[in-house]
């Protein structure tokens, strides 16, 4: 997957560090901020996990309400144009199981 190749991964890791800074300010985990961001866009996230501790962490994201300013800061922290690498293999059409 292009997004997980070493060069792209390193570039994207720098974007994640920006979000981690916001998460620390909010007293939340990176996963909680991500789930709250999805919820702030009117979508109900349904995360999966294999560990009870992660289930509790994910459920706590429902209590994290992001302000319009928080959502703006997150958008500025991770501009789509700065995300490196594609989401999938270029030779596989979208929606195709592999």
Structural class: mainly alpha
Shape: globular
Low-confidence stretches: none
Q: Averaged pLDDT, please?
A: 90
Strand content: under 5%
Number of strands: 0
Can you walk me through this structure?
- There is one protein chain.
- This protein has 98 residues and is mainly alpha-helical.
- The protein has one domain (2-80).
- 52% of the residues lie in helices and 0% in strands.
- The protein has helices at residues 6-26, 30-40, 52-60, 68-77.
- Helix 1 runs antiparallel to helix 4.
Secondary-structure map with pairings?
Blueprint: H1 6-26, H2 30-40, H3 52-60, H4 68-77
Write a short abstract of this structure.
This protein is mainly alpha-helical and 98 residues long. Helices cover 52% and strands 0% of the residues.
Keywords:
98 residues, mainly alpha, 52% helix, globular
């Amino acid at each position: 997957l292009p997004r997980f190749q070493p060069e792209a991964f390193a570039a994207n890791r720098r974007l994640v560090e920006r979000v981690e800074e916001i998460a620390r300010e909010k007293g939340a985990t990176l996963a909680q901020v991500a789930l709250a961001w999805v919820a702030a866009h009117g979508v109900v996230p349904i995360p999966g996990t294999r560990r009870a501790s992660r289930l509790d962490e994910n459920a706590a994201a429902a209590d994290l309400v992001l302000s319009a300013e928080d959502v703006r800061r997150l958008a500025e922290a991770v501009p789509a144009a700065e995300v490196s690498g594609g989401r999938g293999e270029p030779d596989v059409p979208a929606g195709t199981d592999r």
